[in-house]
Amino acid sequence: MARIELNGLGHRYPGSEQYALQPQTMVWEDGGAYALLGxxxxxxxxxxxxxxxxxxxxxxxxxxxxxxxxQLPPEKRNIAQVFQFPVIYDTMTVFDNLxxxxxNRKLPEPEVRSRVQEIAxxxxxxxxxxxxxxxxxxxxKQIISLGxxxxxxxxxxxxxxxxxxxxxxxxxxxxRRQLKRIHQQLKLSLIYVTHDQIEALTFAxxxxxxxxxxxxxxxxxQALFEEPAxxxxxxxxxxxxxxxxxxxxxxxxxxxxxxxxxxxPALAVRLAQVGxxxxxxxxxxxxRLASSGSAALDADVVxxxxxxxxxxxxxxxxxxxxxxxLPEQQTVEGTRVRLDFQPERTMFYADGHRIA
Length: 356
Ligand code: ATP
Fold this sequence. Notes:
9 helices; six-stranded antiparallel β-sheet; 2 domains; Rossmann fold; single chain; binds adenosine-5'-triphosphate
């Protein structure tokens, strides 16, 4: 396993003025389970291919345990990769497919056998080991591809590029959990590319969110939820996403349309230094209905949806729609409500980035 460092790493494809990956510096800890999450075109595959060595970056360097591997091809980086579609040998048995990466590295046969059996057990393939791969479905083949990616103990990292695309939704759910267990049991460093937030949040202990070629936040699922570092994270993670409202600083309070909300003095001082248009962000889960109180804001009710386990109330405030998650038993009377924003969960952003 390796600690992976990206130093000023950026990439522009030849002939393009724009960065597919904006120059950035970060560390991926040894033994971590990382999900690289973001919408199509945000640069996930570019970053993964630079880490694997399929692509040489136009700027910066990649270090594995302090060793500069930037110019090394994939086969010299000691990594395993699992792609969107199965890469297995149809003429071989399931056992031989799983054993291939180990035999290729001349591991003694008893070790090959025990490791293949360990992986087969985890992936529920123990009964299939003698079958020829040609008779398997695309889904079964992809599970074997996962096994091939996980079978070596000595890899610097295992890289997955949307590996569950061909898998049926129910099996997908089981596999996500298995991958998490595998990570806990085998302590491999895993990097998993996906555009599916549920996949990322169930699998990873650190989620790396990308937006327009930039890593906008690396954090635990809880940190992404409670303290989004970028408006994109606020909007992309969670359903419904974070409410985002243009606002203005007015002395020691914040103005939302015609209404004001007091701020902690230190926060007001910090916001006064920004000198850019401000955006207030608050998740639907952190707004309460208030009966009174000086901090409460008036809003007009638009609709109330019952989701069975909670309710989503939509209101307008300063001309903008706001969503509030209410407990299932809560009722809403009348056409106007008063809102209470939890101060410690109310974030401020400028140019998309959170003002710390
Ligand atoms: P997807 O989920 O659709 O695969 P992604 O997040 O993996 O998207 P990338 O494939 O890394 O995104 O693409 C990032 C940007 O780089 C996009 O604007 C894309 O058009 C551009 N790009 C990707 N590959 C090339 C290439 N070979 N030449 C030129 N531009 C490219």
